[in-house]
Amino acid sequence: MHIGSVVGVGVLLGALSLGGGLGCDRNIEPFTDDAVAEPDLGRIFPEAAQGDQGMAPIMPGPGESGGAPAPPQARSGSGEAMRGTLRVAPALAGSVPEGAILFVIARMGPSGPPTAVLRVPDPTFPMSFAIGPEHLMIEQMPFQGPFAITVRVDADGNAMTRNPGDLQGAALTPHSPGDSGIAIEIDEVL
Q: Which pTM was predicted?
């Protein structure tokens, strides 16, 4: 081995150990195997963090006072709300878990990300619904259809999961803003 090589390796090791500019200058925490926490959906869905304001069912549930709540004011976006009725198929009437969350989802096509989502805690059926610009996932998007409308009764209340036993249904045809009389039957068990 040549003496110049040994000296070069020694200088390199000395520079690395003294932080001579060749190492990382960032303060990076080491990786740990801690459990991954659930995401803070309040940052994504501010309405949920505010106690589901404007997301109540149109028909009062058991023990609630009569009269439909006033629809929330539309945010940006265009178009009128789509309105209809949700029913559970008679064969599934006893399958709606207590404390479940109902999601009414409007998409611009048969699949893809939701354009608008209505979240209804502890739904009672049959019930009326209205989904419009105030339910947009991205506030600046226009509320223009046609939309494929699907509904899911989710036992754990997490919109990101689809668990066995959750119930779902869909409108048979696409609908446009301002449509009313939309009838959706929740008739499928996941």
A: 0.59
Buried b (16+ CB within 10 A) or exposed e, 90-111: eebeebbeeebbbbbbbbbeee
Q: Which of 109, 103, 110 is nearest to 167 (CA)?
A: 103
CA-to-CA separations, 84 to 92, 171, 177, 181, in angstroms, rounded = 20, 10, 12, 5
Q: What is the pLDDT along the chain (190 residues), one digit of tens a residue?
A: 555 555 555 555 555 555 544 555 666 666 565 655 565 655 555 554 444 444 444 444 444 444 444 444 444 456 899 999 999 999 998 888 888 999 999 998 777 789 999 999 999 999 999 999 999 999 888 898 899 999 999 988 888 888 898 999 999 999 999 999 999 999 999 8
Sequence-distant (6+) residues with CB within 8 A of 43 are 49
Q: Which amino acid is at 166?
A: D
Helix (H, G, I), strand (E, B) or coil at 187: strand
DSSP E strands, the chain: 82-88, 101-107, 116-121, 127-131, 148-154, 167-170, 182-189
Show the tokens assigned to 81: 């709300």
